[in-house]
Amino acid sequence: MVAKVEITFLGTADAIPTRERNHTSILLNFEGENLLIDCGEGTQRQFRIARLNPCKITRLLITHWHADHVLGIPGLLKTLELSGYNKTLYIYGPKRTERFIKDLFGLFAIRPSYKVVVEEVHGKFFESEDFLLMAEKMDHTLPCNAYSFVRRGKRRIDKGKLKRYRIKEGPLLQKLQEGKSIRCNGKKYSAKDLTYLEPDTKICFILDTVFNKKAISFAKDSDILICEANFGAELEDKAKERKHLTSKQAAEIAKKARVKKLILTHFSQRYDKNPEQILEEAKEIFDGEVVLAKDFYKIEI
Ligand SMILES: [Zn+2]
Ligand SMILES: [Zn+2]
User: 205: which strand partners?
Assistant: First the structure.
């Protein structure tokens, strides 16, 4: 069985929180990794309410340095220290992130007892046997990154074929899994004959950007696109001025990128009473599955 990716929305508001929605933060769990995408004010408390342990965070991915995406960082770093965090914390972000982290450490007298590695990233910036991480520049009022997480499909043994060719399970199968050929019952079998490759799974995060073509190419063929929809379609001019997306523009990105599922987030408080407006408008454009995220909404893939 392929290891599951679990995504928890810890905050789904924009710059102004509401009773129901906290500032932006999304946690992605995959095997031993916990990636936190943005850390708005109050994110630590959202961890508590969701009964999640912030000390399990391995990497912090910052989209950009607007307060609603980063104000939770100083408190979180302090909590990790007080809790005896003993891993290396990787912090990724767009241009100027090293400078901002330095300023933050100075401002709040943060001297972590654990190792912190800060990287300004673009393109593919992390790769392991199991997953990879990519960043792409978006167009916002500050340098801003979109991110994607790709779970690599594994080579799997076709058990039906083993049976058909009367190949017994055993150490030979390890070779097949590594993509090598084997010899069995006097015959040679290549890995291709007896195995298949699972497809990759791509999850893309686009927060705070004006509509742009790079967003479409970056989100291309995502299984899940998590995208901001700060405004309804009636406020297209305001969205353009503030460099944000409307419901319809987010759906347009999903449609053109041929994503399977679109999850909208980062809503203006003006839609708190009627978030369905955003959903309906998005559905007019994108005919795949569309969901409005809310705080503590969880999905598995
Ligand atoms: Zn924002
Ligand atoms: Zn912003």
Answer: 147, 226
Taking the centre of ligand 2 as the mean of its atom positions, its distance from the CA of residue 200, in whole angstroms, is 30
Catalytic (active site) residue 68: yes
Tokens (6 digits) for 22: 């906290």
Which residues of the chain, if any, have pLDDT below 70? Answer: none
Structure tokens at 56: 């399990």
pLDDT the model gives residue 203: 98
Q: Report CA 154 to chain centroid distance, whole Å.
A: 20
Q: In a 3-state reduction of DSSP, which class is residue 227?
A: strand
- Please name which of 226, 224, 228, 206 lies closest in space to residue 215, comparing C-alpha atoms: 206
pLDDT for res 237:
96
Query: Which residue in the list 68, 208, 221, 237 is annotated as catalytic?
Result: 68
Q: Could you give all domains of the chain from N- to C-terminal order, each with its CATH number?
A: 5-154+198-300 (3.60.15.10), 155-196 (no CATH)
Q: How far is the CA of 142 from the centre of ligand 2 (A)?
A: 7
Instruction: Measure the CA–CA gap between 228 and 278, rounded to whole angstroms.
Output: 11
216-275: pLDDT as tens digits: 999 999 999 999 999 999 999 999 999 999 999 999 999 999 999 999 999 999 999 999
pLDDT of residue 165: 84
pLDDT in tens, 128-148: 999 999 999 999 999 999 999
Q: Where are the alpha helices (DSSP H) in the chain?
A: 43-49, 67-70, 73-82, 97-107, 159-164, 172-177, 191-194, 213-219, 236-242, 247-256, 276-285
Tokens for 284, please give them.
Answer: 């007019």
Give the distance (Å) from ligand 2 centre to CA of residue 272.
19
Distance 140 CA to ligand 1 centre (A): 10
Chain centroid to Cα 24, Å, comes to 12
